[in-house]
TrEMBL record:
<feature type="region of interest" description="Disordered">
    <location>
        <begin position="1"/>
        <end position="44"/>
    </location>
</feature>
<dbReference type="InterPro" id="IPR025241">
    <property type="entry name" value="DUF4190"/>
</dbReference>
<protein>
    <submittedName>
        <fullName>DUF4190 domain-containing protein</fullName>
    </submittedName>
</protein>
<feature type="transmembrane region" description="Helical">
    <location>
        <begin position="53"/>
        <end position="82"/>
    </location>
</feature>
<feature type="transmembrane region" description="Helical">
    <location>
        <begin position="94"/>
        <end position="125"/>
    </location>
</feature>
<keyword id="KW-0812">Transmembrane</keyword>
<dbReference type="Pfam" id="PF13828">
    <property type="entry name" value="DUF4190"/>
</dbReference>
<keyword id="KW-1133">Transmembrane helix</keyword>
<keyword id="KW-0472">Membrane</keyword>
<feature type="domain" description="DUF4190">
    <location>
        <begin position="53"/>
        <end position="113"/>
    </location>
</feature>
<feature type="compositionally biased region" description="Low complexity">
    <location>
        <begin position="8"/>
        <end position="40"/>
    </location>
</feature>
Amino acid sequence: MTYDPYNPKQQPGDPYGQQQPYGQPGQPGPYGQQPMYGYGYPPPMPPKPQTNAILALVLSCVGLATCGVTAIVGVIFGHIAMGRIKRGEEDGRGMALAGVIVGYVVIAGWLLYLAIIIIAIVAAANQSTY
């Protein structure tokens, strides 16, 4: 019997077409040692958390409905997130910055609203009704 190169079951030196067993465990395969991660690239890094940045933006926006109390907490979380972003522990700089800006605007708006209410009350109390 002659060797047929188009018959995948027949190996050179194997007249009966039986496949040869693979090499010993731990030895590289027929194409050499394969890289651990496809094509030699390292595995992708997991995304960094953005918890404080998300909390900053959400609490600052909720401050519109809660008299600005949660906006204060949102500003605090925003500054914490900005510090962690600067150290490279977290991502989400834009979200943290938006949370800080929205928080300060909401606080200023509520303070302005409160000042107008107080001025109106004082002006109404000082009017004489003679």
